[in-house]
Amino acid sequence: MAEEVLPDALAAWIPRQRWYAGKGQGASLSRRGGWSVAAGDAEVITYYVLDRQSSGATLYQVPVTRRDIPLEGVLPIWQDDSSWYYDAPHDPAYSRAVLDLIAHESEVGGTRGHRQPGAQPIVLTTSAVIKGEQSNTSIICRVEHAAPVILKVFRAMHAGDNPDVVLQSAISASGSMLVPKSVGYLSGQWPDRSQPDGVAHGHLAFAQEFLEGAEDAWRTAVRAATAGEDFSLRARRLGEATAELHATLGAAMPSREADSADVDRLLAAMLARAAAAIAAVPELAVYGEAIEAAISAVRYSPWPRLQRIHGDYHLGQVLAVGDAWVVVDFEGEPLRPMAERSELDLPLRDVAGMLRSFDYVAGSVLRSDVELPELPPTEWARTARIAFLAGYYGSAEREYTAHRGLLDALELDKALYEAVYEARNRPDWLAIPVEAVKRLAGS
After folding, report:
1. Which band of pLDDT confidence, cut at 50, 70 and 90, is reported for residue 430?
2. How confident is the model at residue 335, as a pLDDT?
3. What are the domain boundaries of the chain?
4. What pLDDT sits at residue 26?
5. What residue spans of 31-144 are helical by DSSP H?
6. Which band of pLDDT confidence, cut at 50, 70 and 90, is reported for residue 443?
7. Close Cβ partners of 214 (under 8 Å, ≥ 6 residues apart)
8. What is the CA radius of gyration of the chain?
9. Distances (CA, A) of 103 to 100, 123, 125, 251
10. Which of 315, 294, 417, 416 is closest to 361 using CA atoms?
11. How far apart are CA 156 and CA 204, in angstroms?
12. Residue 354: which residues within 8 A CB-CB, separation 6 or more?
């Protein structure tokens, strides 16, 4: 499809949005297709917008609604002599149109709705955008006679399956309560010369049950650590939930034994990241040889089966729902290409990510202005880590012993990533990952 010029007002509006990644680099925007559909007294027009920057090209999904009568309480992006044009997620007509496509598995302009088997039809009453998101746009949809639905609109478009959709749909289909119930999703296609047939396919939006009143586990944990409350029981249950999550994914999705090529590839990637981290953070140089030795030492350790994992697992990706834990946001690390995020990986990578998250709770409390509790935050984190691992491994202590070196190496890999991030963004927090690197490299 030939590139098309965007409306001037839309081209000026896009670089000011939170989900736009090219801030400060100058935008070069053009339309690369899209789709439209009538939605009651509005029209939904979805633009696929290509942005060519010095850092590369990014394709965005930018849905707009056109109305002949202005919406009350919503500012338009632009208007002409006869119509008003709005950021579509703020217009209920858009949510209604997307949910209708999903419910009826309809297709329009190469975009198709897919309904989760067993999902009930949805009649929208009201909708509201969640504020503060960086890379996606999520809409809370109130519906008739059913629990509310959260509709996540993926702004940056990627060829290939989005693991957030694939993994949560598979877990939900198994009957597990570890994720919110899936409702369905939108998939689409767009021109892409890098693809063999010149067309890319990927996910555009995902709808699932919204858990009203749920709190993310990070806030729950920070509150407990600030008050000096023992978190062992909740951490153990989180470990049990994580083990169940991996077992469910292992049964629902492909898995295989790690061979020598897998070990070579994963260790080479870890060593390369370590070298880059040491180059970026001078404080790490003194641990260079120990870091390399700790990573290289696990080459001949027992390796668990490779399978699909969460990929970016930490307390902020878990919700506290009563006494239970529910896991969300399976997109993986956002800076990795979509194809890489869908590769089979080590489930211990998720375990390592959660262990680092407990350390960060302690670091957060130590850096706050509150009076420190009787239970020191570092001791709080230590007991939480022990309880989490006890819950994850259960009675399989021999398995934990066999995997201990590999788990340490993966936690070290994560701490090195954190050190680079903190050095660039929050130097006052750099001590948190550096202390972890010192401990793990020495172990």
Report:
1. very high
2. 65
3. 8-209, 215-442
4. 72
5. 92-104
6. low
7. 319, 320, 321, 326
8. 23
9. 5, 10, 16, 28
10. 315
11. 9
12. 238, 242, 313, 314, 315, 388
User: Please, which contacts does 6-9 make with residues 24 or more away whose CB atoms are closer than 8 Å?
Assistant: 6/30, 6/31, 6/47, 6/49, 7/78, 7/85, 9/77, 9/78, 9/85
Tokens standing for residue 207? 């709808």
pLDDT at 333: 81
Q: Are 318 and 217 in contact (CB under 8 A)?
A: yes
Report the half-sphere exposure of 363 (CA within 13 A, side-chain side). 18
Q: What contacts 353, CB < 8 A, 6 or more positions away? A: 310, 312, 313, 314, 414
Measured in whole angstroms, the distance separating CA 443 from the mean position of its chain's CA atoms is 31
CB 399 within 8 A of CB 393: yes
CATH H superfamily, domain 215-442: Aminoglycoside phosphotransferase (APH), C-terminal lobe (3.90.1200.10)
Asked whether the beta carbons of 129 and 148 are under 8 A apart, the reply is no
Sheet strands (E) in 296-341: 306-307, 318-321, 324-327
What is the number of other CB atoms lying within 10 angstroms of the CB of residue 391? Answer: 21
Angle at 237 between CA 233 and CA 238, to 5 degrees: 115
- Spatial contact of 60 and 14, defined as CB atoms under 8 Å apart: yes
DSSP 141: E
